[in-house]
């Protein structure tokens, strides 16, 4: 399993390595994305998952995967 999760937030799809205690991040929760921005979690609707992917989060996620980092 990868050490990050994709989360709809601030009109885009961001990845985060923030630890979640159980289930999904709460709507309205502030998380730190892999792009190092603080973003607010949005509702994970079908349309939200079609939002544009943050290019910097995507690059950082690929670095983690290629390095073999896992949970």
Indicate the overall shape: globular
The average pLDDT is 91
Structural class, from secondary structure content? alpha+beta
Characterize the main sheet: 2 strands, antiparallel
Strands of the largest sheet, in order across it? 1-2
Which stretches are poorly predicted, pLDDT < 50 over at least 5 residues?
A: none
Question: Based on DSSP secondary structure assignment, what is the total number of beta strands?
Answer: 4
Q: Round the Cα radius of gyration to an integer and report it.
A: 11 Å
Please tally the helical runs, counting DSSP H or I stretches of 4 or more residues.
1
Beta-strand portion reads 15-25%
Helix content: 10-25%
Order of helices and strands: EEEEH
- Distance linking N and C termini: 6 Å
